[in-house]
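Q: What residues go here?
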């Protein structure tokens, strides 16, 4: 469904019912279809909200640059439009964790607790992931220009489908994103604003609030590290950064999920979704 707030019009999907409401915040470049399997599992015991951020999927266009601080305001705009009153668990993956973390600082009474799935961290982005980020940013720029000049329109859908390792039901939506100038314009804006978002998260990390927080780290970290020794070293660094989030509250918990990577940790198929859903359910039960 489409929901119109003060800051824009959002494509929102609400599934399930329960005493607890769970908000799932996408990572960069993703639409609400990222959460297909996890939303299905979580909806068995909670009301689960997913949405396309402005500029993505079926949501409207944006007029303010895509800093995660601005997107936190827009996330709150959705919550107001939906009139959410039940205890809210906000879950953020990757860059979406920035949005959830900012939401907790800007509107501390809006959420009951947070769960960050392999979150982005400012120091990590400025050092260990710097080269990797530059490669992804250049790719986003290339895709933006390709769509601006409608080059991607000439690529046969069958060819792209062969490259996509995803559920067939989601392929039409992914194809639309790949061939959408609006989508890549949004991605580029998020990348351009990453330095600003990093600074704002650094400031937010200095603010301690008594909000329960669970941080899950993927043991198989992505990047440009190709041997086991370097990957292990990177994981140790990432774990250190992720624990900084937990240190902002006296109710912070950190766990590293063995065998998971940046994609499986958000439940990218039925099996992984069941695993992550059970962890989230156990955490919610602990809160109550």
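A:
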């Amino acid at each position: 469904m489409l929901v119109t707030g003060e800051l824009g019009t959002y494509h929102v999907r609400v599934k399930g019912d329960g005493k607890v409401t769970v908000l799932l915040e996408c990572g960069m470049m993703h639409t609400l279809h990222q959460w297909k399997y996890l939303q299905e599992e979580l909806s068995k015991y909670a009301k689960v909200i997913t949405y396309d951020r402005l500029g993505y999927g079926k949501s409207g266009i944006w007029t303010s640059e895509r800093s995660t601080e601005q997107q936190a305001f827009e996330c709150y705009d959705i919550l107001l439009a939906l009139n959410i009153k039940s205890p809210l668990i906000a879950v953020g993956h990757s860059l979406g964790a920035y949005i959830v973390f900012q939401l907790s600082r800007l509107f501390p009474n809006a959420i009951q607790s947070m769960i960050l799935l392999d979150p982005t961290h400012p120091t990590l982005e400025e050092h260990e992931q710097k080269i990797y980020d530059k490669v992804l940013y250049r790719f986003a720029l290339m895709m933006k220009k390709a769509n601006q000049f409608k080059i991607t329109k000439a690529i046969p859908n069958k060819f792209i489908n062969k490259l996509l390792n995803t559920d067939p039901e989601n392929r039409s939506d992914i194809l639309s994103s790949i061939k959408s100038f609006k989508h890549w314009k949004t991605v580029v804006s998020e990348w351009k604003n990453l330095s600003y978002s990093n600074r704002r998260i650094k400031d937010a990390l200095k603010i301690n609030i008594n909000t329960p927080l669970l941080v899950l780290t993927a043991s198989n970290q992505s990047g440009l590290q190709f041997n086991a020794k370097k990957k292990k070293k990177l994981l140790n660094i990432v774990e250190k950064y992720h624990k900084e989030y937990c240190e902002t509250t006296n109710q912070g918990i950190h766990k590293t999920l063995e065998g998971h990577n940046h994609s499986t940790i958000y439940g990218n198929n039925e099996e992984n979704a069941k695993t992550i859903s059970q962890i989230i359910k156990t955490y919610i039960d602990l809160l109550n």
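A: Context that may help when evaluating the design: The chain has eleven helices and eight strands. The domain at 2-122+196-287 is CATH 3.40.50.1820 (Rossmann fold).
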